[in-house]
Amino acid sequence: MQDITESPVKFFGVLYNDLSVEWVQLLTRPFRENGCDTEDDLTALIIRIQQNEDLLNSHLSVDIRKPILRVRYNSAIPDAYDRLVAAAGDKYHLFPEPRHHVNNQVVDVLAMPEAATQTLRAALKTLAPNEETYQVAVRLLDAPALKAEIEAVFNEIIKANAGIA
Questions:
Q1: Bridge partners (DSSP) listed for residue 71
Q2: Does 92 lie in the same domain as 37?
């Protein structure tokens, strides 16, 4: 493999005098890919790494005997990187890939207190930095022809700022 994203399975073709081709698989460095999303996944993988001596194929040349181990893991797991490095030791070429998982939270809007729900206008009133900005936002919200209203607001702003230099 020249790159970790390549397929680890390699072949070469043997062309015979009768123009037939036989594809022969090359002996290549063993490649394992794993994913760990939870603490339990990581613990199980570390146990497999430590116990899986059969990955060290003695029939391979010394140059390609040491396996490649690619591990995609949840970066929120405590000490995951250090634990993987310790488990792999010098028995593997380790390629750790931390993944940042976003925790999505589902909110039941029917169970929310009524005071917590807002209309879009109430949210605009809360978020607008001043009354003028709020009025422009409401004007755009109510516009029957939004594109024309945006052009009108733009032209008004240009005219208002024309005297400022």
A1: 34, 96
A2: yes
